[in-house]
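Notes from the 1:1 (GR / supervisor)

We went over the backlog. Supervisor wanted to see one worked example end to end before approving the batch request, so GR pasted a single chain during the call. The sequence is below; no edits were made to it. Supervisor asked that the structure be written out right there so they could see what the output format looks like.
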Amino acid sequence: MSALKNALNDTLKTAMKARELEKVKVLRNVQAVIKQIEIDRQMTLDDTGVLEILQKQTKQRQESLAIFTANGREDLAQKEQFEIDIISEFLPQAMSEDDITALVNAEISKQGATSMQQMGSVMNALKAQTAGRADPAIISKLVKQALQG
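Structure output shown during the call:
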């Protein structure tokens, strides 16, 4: 079993013992999504796969949070924020924009990229380096700026 799934299980057990029912509900929900994907794909997910699911779950909740906040539903917004906080405990520390910019510039220099046609190869290299620690949309924006500027 992957280290991330073990961490989820351990946290779930601790939350159950502490009778933190809302936290238990969130963790079980995440585990159910992981299990469903494993069944659908007929494979056991490694840490990278679990990390992708956690990121997707966080992103879905952030979108819901934005909608609830915009519509004045603070009760539902607080619930979504609570779930985001719990899931975020299992995500690696996010990179700062300065760190991402430094990686982008280093990769462009390494590959000698000078035009937008080379953006794909730069993005593929950066995807591996920043897996789970940076939003691909931010990386894409910074690569475009660097190649156009």
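Supervisor's comment: Helices lie at 3-17, 21-41, 47-70, 74-88, 97-111, 119-129, 136-148.
Batch request approved.
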